[in-house]
Structure formats: structure tokens, C-alpha cells
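INPUT
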Amino acid sequence: MLLRLLLYKKLILFFLIIKSTWGVANVDISLYNKVKQAYPNECVVQLFYAVDYDISENNGAIEISFTRRERIIFLKDAQHYYSDKKVYSNSFVELSEIEAYSYIFNGSKYKKVKVEDFKEVIEDNDIVFHDDSKTLNVVYPGIKEGSVIELKTVYSITDPQFIRSVFLQHYLPTHEMEINIAFDKNIEVELLKFNENSLSNKFIFNENKKKKNYVLKSNKIEKWKYEQNAPDFLNFVPHVFPLVKNYSSNGEKVRVIENAADLYKRYHGFIKNVTNEHSEVLVNLADSLTQGLNSELSKVKVLYKWVQSNVKYIAIEEGLGGFVPANPNKVLSARYGDCKGKSTLLYSLLKHIGIKSHLTWIGTRDLPYTYSELPTLAADNHMILTYKHNNKCYFLDPTSNYLSIDYPTSFIQGKEAMISIDSVNYEIRTVPVTEPECNFIYDSILFESKEGLLTGTGTYNSTGYTRMRLIDRRNIQDEKYRHELYEGTCRKGSNKFVLGKMNMTNENIDTLIISYDFTLDNYITVYNDELFINMNFSRGWTDRKIKEDRVHAVEFDYNASLNQVFVYNIPHGYEITYMPANYLFENEFAKVEITYDEKNNHIIYKQKLVRKKLLVDKPNFGEWNKFIVALEMNYKETVSLKKK
Amino acid sequence: MKALSLILVFTMFCTYIMSQGLYHETYTWNKEVHNFTDTTSEKVILFEKVVVEYAFVENNFIEYRTYHKVELINTEEQIEYNNRKYINIYNTSDLLLAKARVVKPNGDVIEIEKESIKSSKDEVTGEVSHYFAIDGLEKGCIIDYMYVVQKLPHYSGITRFFQDAYPRKKYEFHLLAPNHLIFDFAVYNDTNHVLSDTAIHDKKHWKLMAYDIPELINEDQSPYNKFRKQVWYKIDQNLANGSKDMTSYGQASQNLYNRMFKVEDKKDLKKIEKFISAIDIKKDANEIETITAVENYIKTNINIIEAVGVAYENIQTIIENGTASPLGITKLFIQVYRNLGIDVQMVVTNDRMEYEFNTNFESYNCLVDYLIYFPKTKSFIASANFLFRYPLIPFEYTDNNGLFIKETNLGDFKTGIGKVKKIPALGYDKSYNNLNIKVAFNNDLTGVDLDIERLSEGYYAVYEQGYYSIINEENKNELVEESLSLLMKNYKHSSYEVINGNVNEVGKKPFIISSKGTNTELIEKASNKYLFKVGELIGPQVEMYSEKERTLPVWDTYKRSFVRNIEIEIPEGYAVKNAEDLNLVVEYVNDDKQVLLFDSKYVLNGNLLTIDINEFYDQLYFEVDEYKFYRDVVNSAADFNKIVLLIEKM
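OUTPUT
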């Protein structure tokens, strides 16, 4: 009797679960018609999206189950590009259950088909050479216009640090959404909100006999718009992160992570075993490279540069290897390592010669978090080395190539760095944003014209990130593309520009110099005794005009400045009949200054451009475009000459 | 060609017992390390050896591949390229051995630990990737690595290249097989031959040795693989059962006929009939209308998925699940068309960008991609491609040969016979991007109002036209904006209309975007004179450079044409000074036929300036000495693009 009752209860529970799990409208033609009417301009709609977190305490340990349920309807033939779906997992976020269905539509009725085809696939990854992540490919059979696909995935997460954020907006419009974050009463969970909007505030907190919950139900949620040159979607898509702060077990409070100090404690655990036993090779290398150098800074520079160029970036991240640096002796003998390995090698080389440096965690610019906002492993993704000298912090990123010690890598500018001091102490500092003048291009040419053909010589100087980018590209290109790269770099006027002889010098010093000669055909207009020449040979920045209907901010990799001096040797017998006026425009985002001069039978054109902000957000699109319009207007101005 | 090798069951009797061991069992790298310096090349391949051995082991027919390569790495860039090695095999194969060592410039040797070899698998493609990072690499190092793979035998045509962008000092290719299996070989672009080595008596041994092979650098649009040194091999005879000509297009034709044309199962037939009844074919439809109706129906209702199992080659499974593999959907097409009484042939070919279809040395690695041919209309469809519709097929398969398989009667017996024939390139007038533009200056001559009509067909239309019907409104808008901004960077449209934006119209009707808008960047000012950048109306044009001597021929993608008609209203009271700049003719006449042309002409009638441009490319292959003619025509379009009209007050 008892057994039957239990069974009966189980059955009810089962039905309840079924009902609550797929508690959305039946898939039938009326749903199809309704959705088609509600989303006349869409071809794929997410009918339903649900996330359930269940965070519980069991025998003093936290157990987390994460369930995601998605249902998508195709309103056009778009299935040809969506008929398979990828499911990702790794050793910290393990996939414990997967279930998928196709609802095949024949124009009037649906047939539900269970998907049996889950196969592991290899995903190309340019950044990480090897890790323990897995990708499953789910192939939905028979879908076409009207068809619906459904996917349920359950993950078990053993460590609250590996909880994933819950996104409240998706790349598809979402018809219905349910988020439920449930946790045992003896666990304290704070719901951290990022890019808050009206939806984020709809979370309701409730409590029943067993659990506490944060619940959100909503419908008709707009998709987020992908735009080029926008910050990463994490910077604008509203999302929440359930932070497990502490829990009580057997009457004792166990602290998980409540603030940045707790995170540091954990981080220090990853680096505390970095060896102090340096191999003979490491010792000899540090000694020999710094022999004869007096100043500490010069020693740091030499060792930094050596690691940058002689130890290649190859990331192998398995399990904790994604967090614990490899043995520096091993990194040195292998000549490769990831960011942690390379940083730790440099740390050890410096340590051997008695120079103190600090292993440092940092998030790249696509992560919008500060350590106080999100004190978890999700706040960062990178390791560098901090070196302090004369009250100045140098942020050394050994994964960079050809970058001088004065520059942080461009992708960590403005980000918080968590700098290790000792086993307890750490320091949070913000990496500075590099000034425009530090990333400059100075390009000057002296040229003349003969029967419509321009010939000239030039010098191109570049420093900072612009220099680094050029050297980097030069290195990954094949020989035959290198000439095109230099030609593109020095190009003036049009694709009729032909780079002749060129010579690159100083590439290992801070300012790279290219001296070159060139010809440019079909650029000037000659008619009878008149000659027209537009001195605005390079107009690349006008490409960055922002469309009025753009939604997201425009992001630049770095601030920059460009100085050009173009000197035209006026052909014999000609005189200037029109020379455009000088021009200056400046606002908080950018500056342009163009001047024209005549001296010793030469026209001297100078242009100075400065870009001052990494981000132009929507309210400032107008300000930015004022700058672009100023460029466009001035670029139309042409010099005219006439035979005397 | 996985499909073909599966059906070719090897009928060989294992009565031969190996008396001598297998080659790979005793082969290893030399104890003494290589010592070589070269400072001129970025990388030198000091040695490369490929040994393919077929053998019967415990009654199983097995292939072993031993691969050994020694390379000198001379630059930082080459370190980045070479410090990771990948061995990609299939799940039907086993990696028996993989080892690597690095010889430092000072002679020190670092051996890669076995544990550092990682692997990952792809259950869809069946690919298993083994990979490892090379330890201790620095400039001047030598990487010496080798591996042995045991696999299901693959013998019906394989190509091995032994020339690439780096010089090779020594290359060896060996093929070993039981005495009763005779292989055939072909070597291209090299004077060395594959020779039989009779030193071993209990098995056949063929080898190719080559020394001091120079590098061959790829060039834009060149059929690079065609000119690389290469060896092809395939099984030819089985002396044990008297089989001859074992790898032949005739054999392949019969196999594919049996597999694709025959309906064995009555249930299949019923399914097909029911399937056909749902297709909307007009009663009086002609053949083209029927072909088209079937193609559109199948491609709308059956998803093509590249990497699915053989189940998706079964007619019933395909129809029930609405999903098919490329071979499966081709079979469905053949069955449906035959059922409707349409004469079809199956065409098997390959991507000519990889290698040309081999007509001399019949080899199954040329039988990779499927098309269907309709003899009556002499047209094709690309059965396994959603976007391409009758009669348009991807250009990679055109201007190449293919194996055409058709049904034939031998008395009462029906079978398939194959014939190698050319798959012609699409005519230049069928693949175009034409423009009709009307230009009017605004009042203060700061900009122009434009009325643009862009018509495209063939390879210029297929992607836009195909995608247009299956994307949302927002993406449609982006697609049009993108197309217009590719034409003219600063064009701002006030309205647009798209005509024939439907995948079912691909290959049949032109894709048309017509738009009205303005452009303020086409006029430059010098005091009271105006410079109108008329050339920019035709959009940016490729400029091909000449300073480097061309060494390889060009094999262009597809024939094409551009017809442009531009009408410009010159503002009242103004005159164009240099209109004669607009007259520009460059042509290439080959064998009395005009094959390339850029021809621009103008007519000035009152204040209406009309420019007619006719540009076409009716030849795909250009020998090195013809390259300059090709370049000149391409560059003349770039010249036109730079033309500026001087407009002055009268």
C-alpha cells in the first residue's frame, strides 16, 4: 500500500515536472499562426527560453544543477542554416543530461520526433591549442518552415565559481522566458545584475518551505542587435550572476566568496606553489642576458623582450591547468607557454636576479566587470606581470610581441588589475589608457608630377600599437603578401599607388621607420593648361562615420594620432590659382587640423588627426560625426594650378 | 569518395603469408642527427619520406602509412607556423607511432615526450586529431618527426604532392604491396619515374626518389596544384583473381549506377510516388518547368546535411525525416526525375581549384562531388547545394571534366555506362553585374541625386538572391545597404526596391536592386570649378600589379560581364570640359575572337551626357604570356574608376 502510494506520488510529481518543464503552449498550427502574426519580420523566433539553477548543500558541499530549455520556431526556410546546434561543456561544467526534439510541420500538423543524433565534434580554436572542453553537435531532422526544435540540457557544476551568467536577452527574439534560481535556505546567494534594465528588476524573490528563489517570468523580449565595432555583447546585454556567498553546514558558516579578498585568497592558492628552484638554464639565461647592465629597468626590459620573442604562445588548458601556471623551468625548455606560463617564467627570471615583480590577474576589455562587482573567476581571463619602479607600475604582458615596456597590451587598457603582493595582500589598480600621442604615425612625402604621373619618396614612422600591429601582420603574412602590406600601409590616393623601393629600419626599437619611393597614376586631373590636385591623399578615417540608427557604442582598439606632411614640387611653369583654406576642428573625441602653405615653389600640406576616446557611446554619435563631416568637407577641397 | 570505396568490396584471397616483416616495424630515424645549415631560406625540408604499404595481416587487408619529415626552421615566423603539429586521421585508423625530436643549433637534442601528444575526435566527420607542440624550438633548429598510421586500405586513386612553398633536399615515396597486387602510377611536373625495386622478392616495391626540389610559390588565381610536382597511385590489377583495370571510370560508373539509379525496394517506389504527388507540377509543364518545380520542392523540403551517417542515403529515411546527405539527395533527385520520365545522367566531378579532373590516369579522387545532367536541355543542377538552382552550378565544377553516367540497355539488362566529358563554363552573358544610373546635380553642386538600378545574374546574384528570401527584414535591409555601399561608399539611399529576391528565381531571373538616393562625396571643388568623380559611379575596381614577373598561368573563376549605362544631366549653364577622357577601349583578341573587352563611350546631347560601358571576360585560362592582356583589361576598368570630369561655368 505504501509502495503504491509512493508510486502514485511519484507519478503525480512526474506529471507536475513534465508540466512545469515544458509549461508552454502546445506546438500546433494555432501557435504557428499566432507567432507568425506576432513576428511578421522575423524568420526565426525563440518561443521559449528557461533557465533553472538549483543550488543545494549536501554534506557540507555545494551542489549545483543548471538546466536550460530552449524552443525555436522557423518562420521561413532559414532552417538551412540552423539545423544543427552546438552544446558546450568542460570538466567544471559537466553535461549530465541532454534531450532534443524536432516538431516536423507538414503545413497543417506537427509530428514530434526525438533527436538521437548527438555527436562530439572538433571546434576550431585559434586561441587555445588544447583544453578539456567538449562540443556536442545536435542534428535536428526534418525541419522546415513552421517546424519547431526543442533542446533541454542539464549541467552539473561542482564549484560555485563556475556558475554561468544568465542572459536576459538573446540573439533571437524571445516569446516567453522563465528564469528560476533556487537555493537551499542555508545558502546565501546574491543576484548580481549587469547592464540592468527594466527586465532585470522584474526578478521576484520568494521563499517556500524548502527553498529560496529568484524568479523571473517575462515575454516578448526583443533580440539584441549585433553590430560591427561594438564592445563585446557582455557590455550591453542584461545578465545576472548568482553569487554563492556562504552557507551554513552543521551550524557553522562556511564562507565561499563574498568579496575580492576572498577571490584573491583562492587565486593565491593557484600560484603559491610556483617553484623557487630555478633550473640551471633559467639561471644562466637570466645572468647572461643582464650581464653588464646597471639599471634595474634595463634588466627588466631585456628579460621582458626575451620572453616576448623567444617563448611562443601556445595554450594547453586542462582542468586546473587553466588556472595554475606551468612550471617556469618547463616553459623555458619547451619555449612555449600560455599567459600564466610566460608571466611566471618572466617572474622567475626577474626573481633570480633579485628583482621583484607581481603576478597579476586581469580581464580583457570584452569583460565589463570590476573585482568588486563580480568577485569570481568569471571577472577575468588573463594573467600578466606587474613591475613597480619609481612609483610607476609597468604592466608587462609577455604574450605580446614587439610591444615596449611602456605600453600595456591594448586589450587590457582601462581594466582593473589584481596584483599579487603576498599570500594575503593584493592590490587593485586600473591599467591606464594609452594617450593618442603614444600611438602615432608620422608620414611625409616629397613628390612631383609629370604628364599626370606622380612620383615621390616618403618616410613612414610608427610607434606604439600601430607599430606593433604592423610588425605582427608582417610576421604572419607570407612573403608575397608582405609587399602588399607595406604598399597598403604607405598607400596614397588610390589603388593605382605603386610602392617602389622600400626599406624598413628600427623595427626592434620603439619607432619603426619605412623609407620608400612610389608612383601614383591617374590621380591628378590635367586639362589644357590647368592642373588639379587634391592633397588629401589618405582619407581612411572617414570610414568610421556612425550610422544614425546604430544602437551600440563604437569601440576602438586604442587612441591614435596621425601626422602627415605632403610636399608637392610645383611643375615648372605652373602657378597656384586656388589653394584651400586652413582648417581646424576639435572636440572631446577627435581633432583635425589641415594647413596649406606655399614655399620655394612647393605646396606643403599638413594634416594632423587625433582620436582621443576608446569608446563613442550613443549620446555622442552626433559629436563624433561632426568630426567625420569636417573631414569629408575638407577632403573635397582641391588645389588648382595653371600654366603661367 | 568515401561512398565509392565502401561499395568496392575487395575480392582478394589471403593465401599469401608474409615472410618478411612490415616496413614500418623496422623503420626509424637515424641515430645521428641531421646537420645542415642554410641561411637563405625561411624553411628547408631536408627530407620527406612517405611509405604506403598494403598487407594481409591475420586475414585482414590493411594499409600502413609511414610518414617522416625533417625540416630546418630559420625564422621566428616559421617557428610560429611549425611549433604545432597535427596528425589527422579517421576513426577507422589507428596511430601506431608518433615521435618527434628537435635538434638545436648547438647539437642538443630534445625528444618530445609521448604524453604531450593530445587528441580530440569528431564523431560527425569521424576525424581524430592527434596534435602536439614542439618543445624547445628556436631559430636554426631542425624538427625531425615521424608517425605510422594503420588504416582501412585506400587504393583507388590518391595524389601526393612533393613540392610546395619551401625547397626540399630529398623526397622519397615508396609503395609496398603483396606480390599479386599491381599498382599503377603517374608522376606530373617531374622527370623522375616511379620504379619497381626488385630487391625484395616476397612483395612488390615501387619507389620514387627526387632530389633538390625547388620551391613553387603560389600566385593569385593560379591553378597552383596543377603545377606542383606530384605522384598519383591506384590499384590496377589483382593477379590472384585476374581482375584488371580495377580503378577505372567504367567500373565506377557501374557501381554508381547500381547505387543511384536502381529502385530495389517497392516501398521506396511507393514513397517516391507519394512524394511526387505533393509537388506542384503544372499539367502542361515542359521539361524545364518540371525540372525546376522538382528542384525547388526538394530543396525547400529536404535539408542537406554534409556530415550525417549513411542512413541519410536511404530514400525512405530521407523522405520521412526531411534530411539527406549530399549523396542521398542526389539519389532522391535521380529517382524522382526518372519517375517523371525525365532523362537524367549523374555527373561526378571535383573542385578544379584543388586539382583538375584527371582524364589520363583514371582515379577515384576525382569523383567527389555530384551533379545531375539533363541531356535534352544540356543543363545541370547542383543537387546537393541549396542556393544554386537550375541551370546554375558552382563554378568550381565548370570548365573541368566530369564523369557522366547514364543508363544503357544491354539486351534485357540495364546498366550504367560512363563517359568523361567537359562541364562547360557558364557564358559571360549569364553571369553579370549590370548598372543603369541616372545622375542629377543638386542646386549648389555639392552633391548628386542618383537613380541606380543594379541587375545581376549568375555568380553575381546567387548568394544575395538566395539568402534574400530566407532572412528577416532587418537583415534584408542590411544586405541591400551593404550591396549599395560596396558599389559606392558614400551613397545614401532614400528608397530601394528589390525584385526577384527569391531563391527559387536563382538562375532564372535577374536579382534587381533599384534605389534612389544621394552622394555628396563625388564632387570636389577647386575655387569655382567642380571636379565630378564620374569613375566612382561604377564602384571600386581591382588593380592588378605587374612589377613581379608572373610565373604561373591564371585559371579564372567564371566568365563575366558588366554592362553599364550612365546618364548625367549637366546643370544648366555649366559645361563638361574633358568628356573625351571617357572614351576608353582595351581588348584582347585571341584566335580572331574578341575574348576580353573594356569599352567605354560617351555621347553628349545638349546637357545630357550618356556613357555606355561594355566589359566582359570570355576566357578563363591564360598562359603566362597572355597574362598581360588579362591584366590590361582588368586595369582599364580601374583606370575608368579614376576618371574625374571637370565641370565649369560657361
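end of record. The radius of gyration of chain A is 31 Å.
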